[in-house]
Amino acid sequence: MKYLKYILASSFVVISSMFISSCKDDEFTETIFPDDEDVLDPSSYSYKFDKWLVDNFLSTYNLEFCYKMEDVETDMNYNLVPATYQNAMDLALLTKYLWFDAYDELTGKEFLRANAPRKIHAIGSPAYNPTSGTMILGLAEGGIKVSLFRVNYMDVTDFMQLNEYYFRTMHHEFAHILHQKKSYPVEFNLLSLGNYDDNNWQDRNGGLVASLGFVTPYASSQIREDFAETIANYITRTPEQYDLILWCAEQGWYSGDDDMDQSVAYAYYYYASEYDRENENPTYTLRFVEGENSEVALYDVRTRQYLNSVEKVENWIESISDDVTVYPVADKDGKDGKEIMLQKVNIARKWLADEWNIDLDKLREIVQARQNTLGGDSPVIEDLRKQIEVVQ
Questions:
Q1: Of these four, 126, 144, 230, 352, which has the most CB atoms within 10 Å of its CB?
Q2: 139 and 42, same structural domain?
Q3: Alpha carbons 299 and 10: distance in angstroms, whole number
C-alpha cells in the first residue's frame, strides 16, 4: 500500500500557464475590481470572513481571494467542486501567514502590492490531467490569477501536507510570476540542457533526477519549471529534507535501461559460500521514495523503514556493515548532480538579489521559522482563526 502511495505521489504536478504577451509591473491602485461589487451583508453567515478578506487582501494588496467557486473562473475541462467554508478560511489565513506576511517581513508591503497576483482562487477538489494522469496542484495564469486545488483535503495538523500541496505550490507559482516580469539569466538554461523530458517526467525517480541536478522530477520537465522548483523547494523544504536530496544527487542510481528498478540507490549483498557471487541478486536495496505527502526518504526494502535524513541513512549503512558488504550503484550519468543543483540555487539567489532586491536565504529563514510553528497540536492556527472571530 505504501509503495502504491509513492507511485501516486510521484505523479503530482504543479502546472503554470504562461501568456505569450509580455508582463509589466502593476502599479498599486485602490482596486482593479468593479465599483459595483456586492456590498457585504453583516447578517450573512460568511460576513466576518468576507470582511477579513477585504481588509487583509483586497484593500491591502489589491487582491481578491475567491472561495465561492464560479464557472467563469475555472477550466470546464475539469470536474471541480467548491472549497468548504472552514478549509477556505484556514487556507486564506495560512496564505497570509506563510506567503504574504513572510515577504512583508523581508520587503515591506509595497513589493507584493506591485507583484502579487490579483486573484487567488481556492477550489475544493483536485484537478487531473487526463493525458498524463497527474494531479494539478496549482495554476498561475499570466501573473494575474493563482488557482489552488484540493482545498477540501487540507489538514492543518499535518505540516508536511500543508507544504506539499499548498505552500510550496504558492512559492512555485509566485516564482513564475516574477520571472515572467523579469527573465532569469540564460546561463540557467545551459546547466541541464538535454536532460529535460516534458512527456515522461512523471515516471522519473526522484533519486535519478537528483543525480542529474534536478530537485524534483517535475523540475526535469521544462527549464522554466526547473527554475520555479529550484526556488520553491529551497525556500520550503526543511534543511533535513533538502540535505537528503543533495546527498541523493551525489549517488549513483539504476536507470530505466538497467535490469533493476530505477529507484534503487545501493545494493547490499551477503557474503555466503552457498552463493555464486557472479549470479547473486541483491539481498538489500535502498530505494528513493516519496512517502506520505511526498516527504523525501530512502526506503530499506528489507526492514521496511523510511530514512528521511542523511544522518539516518548513514547510521543505517553503518549499522549493517558488520553483516553485509556495500556495493554502491555506479554513477554512470557523468553529472555532478549536487554541484548542478547548487549552481541553480546560486543563479536564482543572484537574480532575486539583483532584479528584485530579495535575499533568498533570508526569505528561506523567515519561511522556515513560520513553518516550524505549524503542525500537530500547534496553537498557531487557532490564534490565526481569532483574527476572523473578532471582525466587527
A1: 230
A2: yes
A3: 15
